[in-house]
Amino acid sequence: MWVEAVPNFSEGTDPSFLQRLVERAQRSGVFVMGVEGDPDHNRSVLSLAGLGHLVVEALVSLAELAVTEIDLRRSRGIHPRMGAVDVIPIVPLGPSPMAYAVELTHQLGMRLAQELSLPVFLYEHSARLPKRKNLADVRRGGFEGLATRMAIDPPDYGPSAPHPSAGAVAVGARWALVAFNCYLSTQDLSVARAIARQVRASNGGLVGVKALGLYPKQQGAVQVSMNLVDYPKTTLAQAVEAVATEAARLNVEVIRSELVGLLPLQALLDVAEHFLRLPHLGIEQVVELNLNRAAVQSVEVGHP
Amino acid sequence: MWVEAVPNFSEGTDPSFLQRLVERAQRSGVFVMGVEGDPDHNRSVLSLAGLGHLVVEALVSLAELAVTEIDLRRSRGIHPRMGAVDVIPIVPLGPSPMAYAVELTHQLGMRLAQELSLPVFLYEHSARLPKRKNLADVRRGGFEGLATRMAIDPPDYGPSAPHPSAGAVAVGARWALVAFNCYLSTQDLSVARAIARQVRASNGGLVGVKALGLYPKQQGAVQVSMNLVDYPKTTLAQAVEAVATEAARLNVEVIRSELVGLLPLQALLDVAEHFLRLPHLGIEQVVELNLNRAAVQSVEVGHP
Q1: Would you say residue A117 lies in a domain?
Q2: Structural domain tally of chain B?
């Protein structure tokens, strides 16, 4: 049974580090679907897919590299983080049930604790405590606040104090999400923050939308950075239109966008349905997908 | 080597006729990717794919059924037509070159002439005369004008007079096109025609766009019916935006759209790039496509 894993590492400035991650993943026999290093966020994200036990093997090997090479006492970035290997989500593909992804996060958590002495917090579908459902809550306070927090709130696996240089890691089974950034025609961070507040679910905006206003200086423009955690409900098209509408109200516009990680095929089809005003667009209506229906469906990104 | 074929039949009111077409195609060992019967246009379109020689075999068998069952002396529709099996385009897939699709159209033309006594006009890349490049020119005058025309303009294969009940057939190798209809919030055909005139290439509009204003009465709304014959240059997104802009100028809007036949994967990716303002979206960025890259590319819809 197949899963996707999207490990996040708190190092995005050294291309050779990324290269070593990719080599390790490939040696473990998993597919490296994507690699993104972001110097502004000082963060790297790999998208892996493969048979569950091979993915766990690869993730242990990648985490070992991160723990060896990254020292959070000396590095920073604009993205909140609590560990050298910061977050490891595992997502069901094809017929794999969520329970299988959860089982893999437990296997992975135990190994990261035993083999690398990392404190492991289980989140989302893997969470054993309600307060650990939400990743943002698990990561609150970041690396700097970790020792204080862990003194009263021990992890699910591993030592009850942070790893001195590598912090702690959040591991969780979840459904796929769409991570998408819209850049605006301004350098005014307050504008991006105002739009993020309007569109995100936590302020009464769109269901399943998490949003932050950020300013990655090397891009020369602020961004509304979004996670669509229920993209079948609030689609990528709806989220981007909402950002564009709020932007217009503030006299700026969306000048370009970027996808972080990969898109589930359904999210792509939803975009075309929405903007083309098609009542339905299915894989049977796209030549290459029609002819590879069985193969495409066998690794279909899972959803509730 | 694989090709797609999109035979058009001048009968769209009898679902059992469609069913018999599908059964014959499947018996010939080709994939039936899509089937569309349109009572308004009195027209059916099949989308087939498979190895070239099997596709030719299937097309001969389908044409035989159409010649047996359709009598153009007794049927009409809003779509111009000159034959019971009216047009048969063949499109290269994967690494198949255009020359291979052209070769297949000659094989097919000879067999339709010999086995079914159909006059065959070769068009587009298969045309042997410059005046037959453009399908609209080949079909001008329709079934009713065929006898007069053929008296001075004999076909490429077959008898020099129309088949009494089945007319003649246009067979041509071409690159894929996107056939797309936008329905408008009006029943006024002159509005659809005015928009079609604005967007189509022949009136100085968008490159590679053919457009007609039509009123399929059962739909309760007029449509701008488009063929995008160079969809990598003028993308589906651009064409739909142009229609929407012209519509707004005439105080109507695009209420829904429909795809006729299938979409090449690249056209789908282009739509998302355009509307999401992504500088690039490739198959490697979509989970299911990334994991099936080789399979998807092996049947990739050809383009110049």
Answers
A1: yes
A2: 2
